[in-house]
């Protein structure tokens, strides 16, 4: 599990740097923690049915999005994580994502055999931070 998380974090740092998003940007540290939690969850819970996972990145002018995909059919509810009735990593993921003004969504595969959890984080700094 540790190597998967390390590789995902290092790749995320590299992708952000290539897109001109420096390590001091306020979204970088939360993004690295979120990706670590998503990969940890996938490895921990999906590995028996899905030994491989994929991390996907996308960016726009003011947005950074990433998803972690595995082939385990269970789609965890994100709402309990927000309301405090959930536990563990998803609660951390939702707290960080919403705290930055981002979004999180679970998208099932067309064949219902897997899912992706997508996180979208704004990259614009609030006016008081520019």
Q: Show unreliable segments.
A: none
The spatial strand order of the largest sheet comes to: 1-2-4-3
Report the strand count: 4
List the total number of helices.
Answer: 4
Distance between the termini: 38 Å
What order do the SSEs take from the amino end to the carboxyl end, as H and E?
HHEEHHEE
Question: How much of the sequence is in beta strands?
Answer: 15-25%
User: What's the rounded overall pLDDT mean?
Assistant: 89
CA radius of gyration: 14 Å
Major β-sheet profile: 4 strands, antiparallel
Assign a percent range to the helix content.
40-55%
- Class by helix and strand content? alpha+beta
Multimerization status? single chain
What gross morphology would you assign?
globular
Structural account:
By secondary structure, the protein is an alpha+beta fold. The protein contains 4 helices and 4 strands; from the N terminus they run H-H-E-E-H-H-E-E. Strands 1-2-4-3 form a 4-stranded antiparallel beta sheet, with helices on one face. Strand 3 and strand 4 form a beta hairpin. Helix 1 packs antiparallel against helix 2 and helix 2 packs antiparallel against helix 4. It is globular and about 40 Å long.
Topology:
Layout lengths: L1 H17 L9 H19 L6 E7 L3 E8 L8 H5 L5 H11 L3 E6 L6 E8 L8
Helix pairs in contact: 1-2, 2-4
Summed up:
With 130 residues, the protein is α+β, with helices and mostly antiparallel strands.
Keywords for this structure?
4 helices, alpha+beta, about 130 residues, 4 strands, four-stranded antiparallel sheet, about 40% helix, globular
């Amino acid at each position: 599990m540790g190597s998967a998380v390390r590789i995902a974090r290092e790749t995320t740092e590299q992708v952000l740097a290539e897109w001109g998003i420096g390590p001091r940007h306020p979204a970088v540290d939360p993004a690295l923690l979120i990706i670590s939690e998503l990969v940890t969850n996938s490895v921990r819970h999906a590995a028996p049915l899905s030994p491989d996972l994929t991390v996907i990145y996308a960016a726009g002018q003011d947005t950074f999005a990433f998803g972690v995909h595995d082939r385990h059919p269970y789609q965890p509810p994100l709402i309990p994580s927000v309301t405090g009735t959930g536990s563990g990593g998803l609660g951390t993921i939702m707290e960080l994502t919403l705290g930055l003004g981002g979004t999180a969504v679970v998208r099932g595969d067309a064949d219902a055999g897997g899912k992706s959890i997508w996180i979208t984080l704004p990259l614009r700094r609030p006016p008081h931070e520019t």
